[in-house]
Design brief:
The chain is mostly helical. It has 14 helices and 5 strands. Helix content is 56%, strand content 7%. It starts with a strand and ends with a helix. The structure holds adenosine-5'-diphosphate and tryptophan.
Length: 321
């Protein structure tokens, strides 16, 4: 089974990104043929500082390798290193009714929030359809906000196939229901746009400072405390299993400790959890040439994979003459 996903290079990763998405991708490598790319063309819809985009692309590649994307098991590349995607984007544009794009939630949201609209924002789902259809994946794991984009890719593929025959494979999306939304320090969904994140990488002191800002109930130190709805507990349980989790529950029930103690404990647990990843990241940061080499090899593998498909498309559409 082939699984494909694109990740926007959007800066510092937080634990919501990790438990909601990256961990699943890393797990998928064990059982599926995985394709993962850094969607730098998509990021151009919001990042217009060229130097910044180049930095973000390398930072994302470094972070994903550190967190377990294994170039031996996955094809891992940067979107813009396989230019055929832009060719297919154009081909698919003729099979994309403008009404379909006008109904896209993410476009409507962005315009409603006052973003200046432009064509790249509008045609974003067509590029995403090209990303998907070029590689013929069986499954595209996405967050809820991206379901509609995969559906648009299917609609476009149907229209294309009606004209040229059964060439494009219709993708299925997959939502990981078992992964609950990770709460931020204020209890809302953790998201960069809400400014409530706990980042995976960074300095220990800074991480602890953020953890100390987690909103908690005001209960006297000696009183027993509820753990079910506690933001500190809900974050800690992502990192704990079995006896360790039960032990923490007991500490809540017993009383005698304040939320400050639980926060310090959470900080320690989190710091320990990501230790190995931090070390790997330091390694890749010191060896950026190796990261570039991995990406180059990934782009080569990806390019080979899509050759039969792009040839078929060129022939069918008459671009090959
Ligand atoms: P952000 O909301 O911080 O901008 P993104 O939209 O870039 O995060 O999300 C990247 C990936 O991480 C997506 O697959 C998304 O589903 C996942 N993700 C982000 N925040 C959370 C969260 N709080 N809980 C679970 N998954 C999340
Ligand atoms: N639009 C996706 C996001 O913002 C990223 C993305 C681009 C993608 N192309 C893709 C995801 C293809 C899955 C498949 O999260």
């Amino acid at each position: 089974m082939r699984v494909l996903t694109g990740i926007q290079p959007s800066g510092d990763l937080h634990i919501g990104n990790y438990f909601g998405s990256i961990k699943q991708m890393v797990e998928a490598q064990k059982t599926s043929e995985t394709f993962a790319f850094i969607a730098n063309y998509h990021a151009q819809t919001s990042v217009t500082d060229g130097k910044r985009l180049a930095e973000l692309t390398m930072q994302s590649a470094t972070d994903f390798l550190a967190l377990g994307i294994d170039p031996q098991k996955s094809t891992f590349w940067v979107q813009s290193d396989v230019k055929e995607v832009l060719e297919l984007y154009w081909v698919l544009s003729s099979f994309t009714p403008t009404g379909l794009l006008e109904r896209a939630h993410s476009y409507k949201d962005k315009t409603a929030r006052g973003f200046a609209t432009n064509h790249s924002l509008f045609s974003y789902p067509v590029l995403m359809a090209a990303d998907i259809l070029l590689y013929s994946p069986d499954i595209v794991p996405v967050g809820k906000d991206q379901i509609q984009h995969v559906e648009i890719a299917r609609d476009i593929a149907v229209k294309f196939n009606n004209q040229y025959g059964d060439i494009l494979k219709l993708p299925e999306f997959k939502i990981e229901e078992s992964v609950a939304t990770v709460p931020g320090i204020d209890g809302q969904k953790m998201s960069k746009s809400y400014g409530n994140t706990v980042n995976i990488f960074g300095q220990e002191k800074k991480q602890l400072k953020t953890i100390k800002k987690i909103v908690t109930e005001n209960v006297a130190m000696e009183e027993p405390k509820e753990y079910e709805n506690c933001n500190v507990y809900n974050m800690a349980k992502l990192f704990l299993e079995g006896d360790n989790l039960i032990e923490l529950q007991e500490r809540y029930k017993k009383g005698g400790e304040g939320h400050g103690h639980f926060k310090i404990y959470l900080g320690e647990v989190m710091w320990g959890y990501f230790k190995e990843y931090r070390e790997k990241r330091e390694y890749y940061q010191a060896n950026q040439d190796e990261v570039r080499e991995i990406l180059k090899l990934g782009a080569k593998k990806a390019t080979q994979t899509i050759q039969p498909m792009i040839e078929k498309i060129r022939t069918a559409t008459g671009i090959k003459y």
